[in-house]
Write a structure and sequence with these properties.
By secondary structure, the chain is of the alpha+beta class. The chain contains seven helices and 14 strands. Helix 6 (209-225) links the parallel strand 12 and strand 13. The chain is globular. It binds coenzyme A. Residues 22, 70-72, 77-83, 109, 113-116, 118-119, 122 line the site of coenzyme A (COA).
Length: 268
């Protein structure tokens, strides 16, 4: 029997298994499990008593339903289950829109994630913004302080990257990030960072060469302290000067920096 239902505590062992088999064991699904259970809108696909897939909708500030946590156990991939879970959660999002609880549904994925892009486009999403994602091994670490952000710290036009989530640039989002995100400061240079993703990634709030160089080392400190082997950074399309600095610092891109490779999708 096949059923999509809300996740329950006893599903953890299945979630841990899926997590271990995804992204070379670097998946954060099992780490997010408890907070996603508490938060709600966390669904699993159960087949004959085994949980083989997951999906989550999180309500972000600015009334956005954010889709994440779409996973199918490798042994069950390519059979249409991903698409079923995706469609199911999109319908939950549409219902929340109709009830006036959110205004839209969004999510982000990598350009090379063909399955995910296919599902998005089939389910009526359109790509509204792109970012560059790049990564490298940690550099020489530099200890940093915790900090808070203000609207004037944000230099992007419309989205604030927080790992692989992207929040609309509003005061509510700033408040949310101050509550939920990592905000670091090294000298006067601040950055937003997330450790929940596969690799700890950051968004620099200062993009001067000196600022970036220090932020990269501060982020390296954080990654090393968490036993992580790489750091990632999100940069909006149109910031090619920042990219050339990152390339000079040994950052790599899965698409050789030819195009911005992270797509934010919004339900039309
Ligand atoms: C992404 C994932 C959930 C897909 O699950 P799945 O059950 O294998 O997906 P489906 O079988 O429903 O396939 C989804 C669609 O992608 C299409 N697809 C699969 N491989 C494809 C490829 N290489 N190129 C283009 N489309 C492809 C399928 O044809 C299908 O579309 P269709 O039904 O119109 O033919 C699964 O691969 C997974 O868990 N990956 C790791 C985690 C991940 O990347 N999650 C998404 C993060 S945004």
């Amino acid at each position: 029997m096949e059923i999509i239902r809300l996740a329950r505590e006893e599903d953890y062992k299945f979630i841990l298994e899926i997590s271990k088999l995804t992204w070379n064991g670097e998946d954060y699904l099992h780490k997010a499990f408890n907070s996603w259970l508490r938060d709600g809108n966390f669904y699993v696909l159960e087949i004959d008593g085994n949980v083989v897939g997951t999906v989550k909708l999180s309500i972000l500030p600015d009334r956005v339903g954010w889709l994440e946590g779409l996973r199918v156990h490798p042994a069950y991939r390519g059979k249409g289950y991903g698409k079923k879970l995706h469609r199911y959660i999109v319908n939950i999002g549409v219902k929340l829109c109709e009830e006036g609880k959110i205004d839209t549904v969004e999510f982000a994925t990598h350009l090379l994630n063909k399955e995910s892009r296919k599902m998005a486009e089939d389910d009526g999403f359109k790509s509204v913004k792109r970012f560059y994602f790049s990564y490298r091994e940690p550099l020489e670490p530099l200890k940093f302080e915790k900090s808070k952000i203000r609207m004037e710290d944000i230099w992007t036009e419309d989205y604030i990257p927080y790992g692989w989530k992207f929040l609309h640039k509003t005061q509510d989002s700033i408040n949310w990030l101050n509550e939920n995100a990592g905000i670091g400061r090294i000298e006067n240079y601040k950055f937003i960072y997330s450790l929940q993703d596969t690799e700890p990634s950051f968004f620099p709030l200062d993009v001067s060469r000196e600022g970036l160089a220090k932020i990269i080392r501060a982020m390296s400190y954080y990654a090393i302290s968490q036993g992580k082997k790489s750091i990632g950074v999100m940069i909006p399309q149109g910031s090619e000067d920042v990219l050339s600095f990152l390339i000079g610092q040994g950052f790599e891109s899965m698409v050789d920096f030819k195009v911005p490779d992270v797509l934010i999708y919004r339900l039309k």
